[in-house]
Design a protein that fits this description.
- By secondary structure, this protein is mostly helical.
- It has nine helices and five strands; from the N terminus they run ααβααβααβββααα.
- The strands form two sheets. A three-stranded antiparallel sheet has the order 3-4-5, sandwiched between helices. Strands 1-2 form a two-stranded parallel sheet.
Length: about 240
């Protein structure tokens, strides 16, 4: 406090950093220091080194950054210091950008930061479609073409096509059962495509994510758009069947 008063009296620009301590080394107490600093100096500029928590905690950084930026917003802390060197925090800067906007909205609107911006929901999805096993079976019975559809319910993966309906959690077994039916349309390219899509469906099932065939899994702000190679293959096939000009 004496240092702050001395520098302020000399007109020296400054930011006060009460120091955010890592978990196990005084984390809760350090949050109290930030609150006390804001009470003592209501108009001072504060900063928080949030990297002390994201880098020194074995946990995905998005949720940690969201909570810390919310604290900063409520205490009017306008500067943060972070790093994204360690692998699990490699997207911290982008996370902080989303988090500060979300926290700012919540504080200014006096509303929980829900159903506003889901880009920090990375591991699981916001909601899952409700699919009844009976509905999936009815769909399977209606399909007459040989194009395969892949769907997930809450418990297992469903592979539909050509009057067939294979279901389970082991995609190797699903593919084995499909090949036992002696399909005539599964060449090397199609087998690779089915394997890729079944792998995505498995990841979605394990994590509680939504799986949509020919679409990228949603990873919040980390989502990478995906090209539909099935449609691309169809387009190439159609082009190859056209007579030369």
């Amino acid at each position: 406090a004496d240092t702050v008063e001395y520098l302020a009296g000399k007109g020296v620009p400054l930011r006060i950093d009460p120091i955010l301590e890592p978990i196990g080394l005084g984390f809760a107490t350090s949050l109290w220091r930030y609150m006390e600093a804001r009470k003592i100096w209501p108009d001072a500029r504060l900063m928080m080194g949030i990297g002390n928590l994201t880098v020194l905690t074995d946990v995905d950084s998005a949720g940690v950054n969201m909570l810390l930026l919310a604290i900063c917003e409520e205490l009017d802390i306008d500067s943060v210091l972070t790093t994204q060197v360690i692998n699990w925090a490699r997207s911290s800067v982008r996370e902080c950008d989303v988090a500060r906007r979300l926290a700012h909205y919540a504080v200014r609107q006096h509303t929980p930061p829900k159903n506003v911006d889901s880009r920090l929901v990375c591991l699981r999805d916001v909601r899952l479609p409700e699919r009844d096993a009976a509905d999936i079976q009815e769909l399977a019975e209606q399909i007459r073409d040989n194009n395969y559809r892949i769907l997930n319910d809450e418990r297992q993966i469903h592979l539909l096509g050509g009057g067939g309906h294979w279901q389970g959690v082991d995609v190797f077994e699903l593919f084995h059962e499909l090949m036992q039916s002696a399909p005539t349309n599964v060449d090397e390219s199609h087998a690779f495509y089915l394997g890729y899509e079944l792998c995505k469906a498995t990841i979605a099932l394990q994590l509680g994510k939504n799986y949509e065939q020919d679409r990228a899994l949603e990873w919040g702000h980390l989502t990478v758009p995906e090209i539909s190679h099935r449609r691309l293959r169809r387009s190439r096939s159609s082009s190859s069947q056209q007579p030369p000009p």
